[in-house]
Amino acid sequence: MAKISACVITKNEAQNIERCLQSVRSIVNEIIVVDTGSTDATVMIAEQLGAKIFHYQWSNDFAAARNYALAQASGAWVVFLDADEYIAVGTVKNVRPLIEKIHGNRKIEAVKCQMNNLEGIDGPVRSSNPTIRIFRNSPLIRYRGRIHEAVYKGGKPLKPIEVTNRLLTVCHTGYTNSTILEKVRRNTALLEEELASGGVRTLTYCYLSDGYWRSGEYEKSIEFAKQAIKQMKGLRTEFDYKPYVFLISSMTRLKTYQEDEVTASCQEAVARFHHHPEIWLFQGIYFQSIGRCEEALASLLKALALNDTYCDFNRNNDFPGLSPDAYFAIAQIYEMKNQPAKALDYYAKVLQRNKLKKEAFHGLVSLIREQEPADVIYFLNMIYDTASEADIRFLVTNLSELKVKKVLDFYHHILRDTFNDKTLNALVLLTNCSLETVLPVLIDAGRKQGGYTVELLAVAALIVNDCSERTEVLGPNVNPSLKNILALYFQPDSAAQLGNGDLPVFCDLVGELLYLGSQQQMQKILEMGKRFYLSNNCFTRISTLLLHQRFFGYTLDMILNYVNQVHLESKQLSLLYCDAGYCCYRLKDFAGAARYFEQALELGDRRHYIFDFLDWSYQQCREQAIKEKFKILKELYSI
Q1: Neighbours of 596 (CB within 10 A)
Q2: Is 619 within the bounds of a domain?
Q3: How many domains are contained in the chain?
Q4: Does 128 lie in the same domain as 48?
């Protein structure tokens, strides 16, 4: 029977070391733990589990520390894990039989298996990659590389046997969303030191591109991605496709690269790695960013389909952790296409994977907020846990912003009664109570605590309840901008004037009133906003707010008023007419959409968006004459 040694290097791994060692304790003959300077209970825990403890002076070199551990091992085979790794429970029993089976075959030097990188202990899989964690113990077999170290025999890669994840899986919990950036920065610094000393391994440039991409230094990421692509051309490694991911994503985020250059990189990546879902994902995200929405949708759906059947054992796959990005982009495009059922499905998929993603929650609620409150609550309860304080706080916070009245009241009761949170939620009062109930509470809170938010909500309460005679209750120290806005709202002919300094407060108030005020009240407050046009550039801020909250009718009115009031150059005018056409399209006013899209095209708008809008309008419009107009416009202007 072959003797097996387990090896681990540690530093302050008290939270992880027991899980790691317990996962191999029953299948190995000895456990070697090399500690590099722990100040917590790591060493004590390892000793209690029967490990042999060795101490090593850390030298910023992971390979050196690992090789020191190998020098202490006496087994014929080594299982070398990181402290934040463990062998999956269902596959531990297969390790010793597997080693016994291959022990006599000297051509096999290692076992290559799948590593699943998890979001927390037993959490969802963020990514998977092939890895060697089991290999023969030989003086010729040692690690190389200060960081992202790999094991070699005499400088050459080991000859492994590949096993499926059904037979053996290693789980890794070290790169969660909360820890990854700190580790990436550490790794990048070590790689730069290695590079400065003349050490360039096969994946050095790739790892550097990854590090700078994750830390938001996109120009550096692009520089190293291009070097990595050139260096690895013709090689096959688990990360050979990755430089294209960093390249395409970095150029997308910088928004300074020409479309031809980015598209060429996408085409090259797809040609080389057409089976990899990450390539299609980042191509889709780029296409979406430049308005090639139909192409983006096709690429993103292709990514999902490829991931469902992905079986390339020898390549990394980070798509599972990135899938919420794909779902969210798909949901946005379906919503733009006036396909709310499909959009709802994909917003829900995002939240099933990442329930605290605010943008997806807002998108989902915007599609179901008009349904019966009981139905909305039933739907949300399929995603959120009413016994989780974090879930309930998220729901109350975001439903307060969206002012989904009875639904907000339901979850606020849980927060108050189950989790004993007695904190005043003024929006709950504002959305569910009469003025006589809510105003005294707001005024009292303002006097005791002060604060702009309370004043803002008090002003919103007065406007929603049309109480011009109660404005004096705000007191003399109310925010001056709020005072000006309130005076002008109730007395349009007064001497009160709105200036540049009032704009941020005005926009905040519009945001509060969107879901609280009546149509008449909103029209009145927005008429006040139109007075800003001649003195400052507030239009963009107000119209963006309205469009983002999906109030297409109000947005359209603001755009047309702005176009009629302000002298604009052709380019800006064309963009506004396109926005007007889009608002009409979303409102299913296809005659208006055709009219404004035509004006935009005549003024020179040739963005990809507008041609997708023409296609979608053609598909959805039922009046044949207007359908033909969309068809003619595309044929005429897409040449």
Answers
A1: 25
A2: yes
A3: 4
A4: yes
Angle at 546 between CA 283 and CA 344, to 5 degrees: 50
Query: Dihedral of the CA atoms 11, 16, 22, 28 (nearest 10)?
Result: -40
Q: How many Cβ atoms from other residues are within 10 Å of residue 135's Cβ? A: 22
Q: Alpha helices, DSSP H only, in 369-518? A: 373-381, 389-402, 405-417, 426-432, 435-449, 452-464, 480-490, 503-513
Question: What is the domain range of residue 362?
Answer: 323-368
What whole-number distance in Å separates Cα of residue 318 and Cα of residue 125? Answer: 9
Residue 124 forms part of a structural domain: yes
Averaged pLDDT, groups of 10, the chain, 639 residues long = 96 96 96 97 97 95 96 97 95 96 96 92 88 96 92 93 92 76 82 82 90 95 96 89 98 97 98 97 98 98 96 92 97 98 98 96 97 97 97 96 92 94 78 73 68 84 84 76 88 75 89 91 89 68 92 95 89 96 98 98 95 97 96 90
Please say whether the beta carbons of 289 and 311 come within 8 A.
no
Q: CB neighbours of 59 closer than 8 A, spacing ≥ 6?
A: 65
3-state secondary structure of 28: coil
Tokens of 400: 């307060």
Beta bridge partners of 160: 110
> Is the same domain home to 36 and 59?
yes
**In angstroms, what CA-CA distances link 517 with 222, 463, 522?**
49, 8, 6
Do 299 and 195 fall within a single domain? yes
The structure's pTM equals 0.90
Domain membership of residue 485 (yes or no) is no
DSSP alpha helix (H) spans, 103-217: 180-196, 204-214
Q: Quote the longest CA-to-CA distance of the chain.
A: 96
Residue 291 vs residues 259, 332, 605, 606, 613: alpha-carbon distances, Å: 11, 12, 13, 11, 10
